[in-house]
Every structure is written in structure tokens, then in C-alpha cells.
Amino acid sequence: MNKVETKWPPTYDRSYLPKNDEPYWNREVETMDAEQLRQHVLEKLKRQIRYVYDHSPFYRKKWSAVGFEPGDLKDFKDFEMLPFTTKQELREDQLENPPFGSNLCISPDEIYHIHGTSGTTGKPTVFALSKGDWERMAEAHARIMWGFGLRPTDKVFIGSVFSLYMGSWGALAGVERMGAAAFPFGAGQPGQTEKAVRWLLDVKPTAFYGTPSYALYLAEKAKEMGIDPKEFNIRILFFSGEPGAGVPSTRKRIEETFGGICVDTGSMAEMTPWMANGECMHRQGMHLWQDIVYTELVHPETKQVVPYGEEGVPVYTHLEREAQPMVRLWSGDLSLWTNEPCPCGRPYPRLPKGIYGRADDMIVVRGVNVYPSAVEDIVRSIDGLSDEFRIVVTRENIMDELTVQVEPDTAGAHDTNALTNTLQQKLKTVLGLTVQVELLPAGTLERTEFKARRVIDKRSFK
Amino acid sequence: MNKVETKWPPTYDRSYLPKNDEPYWNREVETMDAEQLRQHVLEKLKRQIRYVYDHSPFYRKKWSAVGFEPGDLKDFKDFEMLPFTTKQELREDQLENPPFGSNLCISPDEIYHIHGTSGTTGKPTVFALSKGDWERMAEAHARIMWGFGLRPTDKVFIGSVFSLYMGSWGALAGVERMGAAAFPFGAGQPGQTEKAVRWLLDVKPTAFYGTPSYALYLAEKAKEMGIDPKEFNIRILFFSGEPGAGVPSTRKRIEETFGGICVDTGSMAEMTPWMANGECMHRQGMHLWQDIVYTELVHPETKQVVPYGEEGVPVYTHLEREAQPMVRLWSGDLSLWTNEPCPCGRPYPRLPKGIYGRADDMIVVRGVNVYPSAVEDIVRSIDGLSDEFRIVVTRENIMDELTVQVEPDTAGAHDTNALTNTLQQKLKTVLGLTVQVELLPAGTLERTEFKARRVIDKRSFK
Q: Hey, are the CB atoms on B203 and A113 less than 8 Å from each other?
């Protein structure tokens, strides 16, 4: 049995496996009550903070500016005095202290894996993980995967690119730790999606990991090849990298298309083990597995932790990381949290609506806040439309215009006027805005094998 | 100290590391004399064969056709009575027994990783590895990497695609086992090579793994970006997937371009741990690490094992594989072996000229055998030519014509007539054939990020 670990950083028995019908990987922690969990997390937090203080010039500098020392940390209230960390800060620190920055808390010789951001915008960031970090990530991910129903008898197709991106590697490490069969197929090479369809048919994996956009793209490819994605017979599809799997109608589309369950996971690559945001098999929003990564929801303006039931920015802190630990990393995402009980019985708070936006993704059109995920939800709830859409914002004279471009699906003849009207009506009802709808010929919109970019803002202040 | 393992399959201590200045990972085995090694290999072979007989319907059927039982195996002579296995047979067996074939010797639940051939020609083949297989591969590769000078303090850039292809995964597993820093960057995505150049500059890995073609392509890209590949400061470049690293002038080009040593490794994906063909730091041809994979060189026609000093087809047999073990797998490659001592002192035979051709790659032009690797060696020995070339075979009336297409390098002005004449002269001397030479504008020939295809045979009998 996987006990409460009192050493820090914890080392987990890599041969441990629960019995197949056991719902919890770590029953002792996962059945704690809220107060026990709070104490357990606080103990780990104190040790992580002590470790960071002793090893990270980056944080020592940040904390000395506010006069904080690890001994000051008695309760979460003390912790909430600590400054946030932003991605921008990390990037600048790495520019000044190349390549790993001044938050590398291990010797360069102890680095086990190097990854990073893809750096499509600006200077990329470098991630270093120690061997212990890798093994703890594998343990955490195996535990969370167990929670959503994966078992050692599963065969897991990993349909996302293996390169800098931590998503694929994190999924793989969890699958390997559990002892399920890993099929690390990857993605992103020209022609690879058609191959994926054939391999899925041949090898019949029981689980799939990727981005929601890619799963839908793959399904479309399969249909073009005359194959119903249900033939793959996948029982669990789990996702990260995009909010889609937490958007109700996208989830519904994925589940109806593949005939398996759709599970939402994922925080940030910097926060690896990133699956510490992860749904259980009941799929009522991602749990915050607080004993792996400690997460607060913080008001975007007051910067205070918000009560359950309210919206805020997830702010993450590692609890068992040796190399490049993050303390109060400001995600910039938006979500809403609750502590209402989940049927699974775990004491973790949940994000019942997933991560539905980013402070900086939100589009303000004529004074109305529009989240791309809200548009996604509406588009995918309408039968007869394909999964793709694009949001185009323009300014004519002084008036902002929001146009949603969609396509009919390829199933057959549609009443295009009716489709357009239905969509326009729903958008108006939900967003409170009159929106232009453009129905493009099927297949016009770009499909993606990775993370989709679906907003085009043509207004001049951008 | 890493002792001679007497259990089968062996389990290795995953925390073991030699001292940094120790030349051998497994001194006890690597300093045996030839006779001790012979006995050690024979013992492992008997156990592998017994295991295969007990678990593989595929081999039981093959062997019962020749009346062989494991008890019959007393010496290598008995072993040489066993039939060869061909890739074609494996493919057909998997078609009849999808997806893993009748040579899967473990339960499907015990499969740890699934990989395969890319299947560019015909039906792909599926590879299954058990967890033990994976760990033994990691151990074997770490041991061989140690032999060519890699150490836990190295940072290893893996510049080949992570998908079905076993090359990247095998290199990664070895690096992870040794505890060097793995930087699994991958390859094959559009635009990834330019990114690779920038990451190499930023992170400064000390070692590089990929295909020889890709290393040269990457160097060319770097130069286009105004960067001398020596700035990467890579001390070891190791390769598999193509014969290039064993071709003297290609090796020289790589070493001169990067300023690091060029190491040749690799047998076949089916034979994972494929690094069991692998050079030591003296780089006098790949050693056959006979206690990991037992290799014979077999005459292509008589099918008898050839004496040292002669040319033959490498035929491989696993010695510590649980899932899909191969017994006498016919590679179809061509090489020459020797047992002359290597300065490293290891008792393993060597392939001093690498794997220089394939029985079916050989082009017969007007009765003369031409190996593409011989053309490669000539082209790359001429200053002023780029690394790329293409061999085009045509038939005009009844006469075969061989044209070698090359390009000047981008270094500056060249006397194109002199270049053409030099190449034509050398080709005639070495091949014994008059060959057409076509000097194309720089950058015309296709560059590859993976394995190069450089022969175009336009004759109608193909």
C-alpha cells in the first residue's frame, strides 16, 4: 500500500501497484478529509519552501525583497504573503543566467531531462528535471490516470509530438510507471495522421492521449478514409494542452465520435507533474490534486485567494520538485473552483468548468467579454456544423464586429440558412451580442495537429 | 561492480555506475578472452533458445520442421543448423496473427512499449518490448555508450524523430540509464531544424545522436544561418540508421564540420538493443557485442558462417530478450568482420568497414557491382562538393548508364570543370566504370531529416 510519505522529497516504490479494483492509487491520502489534507499539504509546503530557500538564488532574491524567511511559514496565510512568479520573470532570468536560470536548484550534472517551451513567440524557456523529479512525475501521473480509470492492462496511444513539449512525455512517463503498454506514436510529421488511423485500427489501443483539436482532426481524417472512429474501440481519451476537453459540447462531440470517455487534465508545462489538474472517472471538472501541486485561485485584481464558488487565476506551487521548483506561479488562466463533494470521495477541490479562458485570451467586443471557449461550446453543440471555427474581430469605423466562421460537416445536405440562423441565435443568447456568422465551404478552415489558434483580432490597437 | 550475470534473463542493478575513469562498464565481461566470451555467450544462447522454444509458436513451428529441440544445442555448430528468419516471414506471420504475430512470447498485458517499422513500403511490422527488455536495452546501450566515451556529466541532444522508429528511443533509454542529461529534441516537424540550431547554441549539449544525413543537413542549415557548427562544441556525435558514420570520408566530413568524434552504431530495429553493433572510442569499426546480441557473418550464397577477414551477411540472435526474440535474423546487409585486436582490449569481433551495403541495395551496372556507400565515400572525399549526391541509373537501348549528380558546396567560387573531372576520374578508378557526372546548382538535391534515399533506378526491369 502506498502510504503517506514523510520524507522530503518523497521517494515512491516504483514497483507498487494497487489491486485492479481499488479506486484509489494512494488510498491513505486520497481518502483524507479536508482538514487532514490541509495539514498534509502544509507540511510538504514548508519543506518545499525551505528547500527552495536553501537552493534557489532566484527565490531567495525575490523573498528577501519582502523580508520572508522559511521559518515565517506557519500557515497558508503566511504563504499568501509571498510574491507571485510570472513566466516573463522566468524568461528574463534565463536570459541573464543562461541556459537554466538562477532557479536551477540542482547541479547541472544532476539534470536528467531537458525540455522547454516551443518559443513560437519570443525567447523560449528551458526546463530541467532531475531523475527524482521525473520519477515523481511518473508516480503522480500514474496515480491520477488510475483515478480516471486507466489500468495496467490498457494500451495507450500517445498522439502528440515528442520534442520540447512536456505533454507527451508526461503522459508517457505515467503510462510507463503504471505498466500499461505505451504506444508513443507522436504527431506533427507530414502524413502522420493517416498513418495514425491505420495504426489505431491495427493495434487497437484502449486509450488515447493528445490535444482535443487533434483528436477531432484525426476523427475527421478517419472518416475521409471511410473509417468510423468508433472502430478504434478506444475506451478512454485523455487530454491536455487546450481547454477543449472541459468544454461541455466538445467533450460531448469527442465522446459521441469515439464512443469512449473524454477526460480533461493539465496545468502548465512549468508545473510538471502537470496532470495535478486532472479529472477522476466521474469527470465533474479537474480535481486539484493539492498534495502534488498546491493550487490557489486568486482574484485577478485584488490578488487575494477567492472563496470556493468564485472565479480566479490558478496559481501553482510545487510540493515535490527538486530542479526549477515553482512557487506561486501565476498561470494567467481563468477558472472557477468548488469544494462540493465529488462522487469519487477525494478531498480535492475541483474546477467544474475546467480552465475556460485566459485573462489575455478574453476578447472585449463592444464592452462585452467573450471567451473563445464559450464560442467553441456553442458551435459544437449544433448538429450539422463541423468541429472547426474561427473568430474574427474587426473594427469598422468605431464599431467592433465579431464574426464567427464555421463550416457544415461532411455528413450530407444541410439547410444552410437554418444552420446560420440557429448559430446566430445561440450566440446572441449566450454572449449577449449580435454576431456575424459566415458559413464557409466544408474543409476551408485550417485543421491543427497541435494546439489550435482560432482567434484573429484585426483591430488596430493589437 | 557489474558482474557476469548468471540468471536468465539477467536483471541489472539500475543504480550501478562505473567510476568515471573506468574504461569498461562491465569489466568482467569486457576483459574476457575469446574463449571465455565464447563460453559465456553459449550459455546465454542455450537459455534464450530454451525460452524461445517454450514460448514462441513461431519458432517452435520453424524448428520442428527441421527436427530441432533445445536439448540438441551443445555448441555453436548445432546452432548453425537452425533456419534463418527473414523480415518477410515476420511480416506474414503478423498478418496471419495480428497485431503482434505468433512470436510474442509474453502476455499482451506485459507489453511495456509498442513500436514498429514506418511501413513506407508494404505492411509495417509491430514491435513489442517487455519492461525487462526495455531495461536491458537501456543497460546495454549505456554500457556501449560508456565504451565510446559518454559519461553521466554529458548532455545529449537527440535529433531524430520520436515515433515508431526505435533509434531515438534506444538512444534515449541508454542516456537515461547512464544518468547523462537527455535532451530529446526529436526531428521531422516542419521548421524544426532551424529551431535545433538555436537550441544547440543555447543549451550547448556535449553529445549528439541522429542519422549522418541529418547531422550534415543540420550543419548546412547552421552555416546558412551564419553559424559555424563547431560553435555547438559537441564532443561526441553518434549515429545509427544509415551506414554513413562508418564511411571514411563521411566520418571525416562530420568530424571536421563539428569538431567532435563520429561514432558508428546500429544493427536493426528488430534486434533492439540495436547498439549491440557499436564502436568503442577507438572507432576502428563497430564491435559485435556478442554477449548482448549474438552475431554471425554468413556467406550470402553458401549460407555458411564465414571466417574472420571475409565478407558476409550479419545474422543476429537475441541473448536477453523476452518479447519477440529473434533467432538468426537475416539482415540482408553486407559487411566484413575481423577478430584482430582492438586497442580497447575487448574480445569482440569488429566490422572494420562498417555495414557498407545491402545485398539488395547493390546496383549492377554493365556487370559491375556498385554500392551506394562507395559513391558516397568518393563524393565526400572531394573538397568543393556539398555532402549531397544522387545516383541515377538509366538504360538507353541496351546500355546501362550510371549518373552521379552532385552540387558544389556553398563556400564560394569553384572551377566546375575541374570538380567534375576529379569526381569522374575517382569514380572510374574505384568503381572500374565510366560514370556520367552532373554538377547541379548548389541546393538542388533534396536534403533529408531522416534516412536518405539516394538511388534512383529507372531501368524497366525494376
A: no
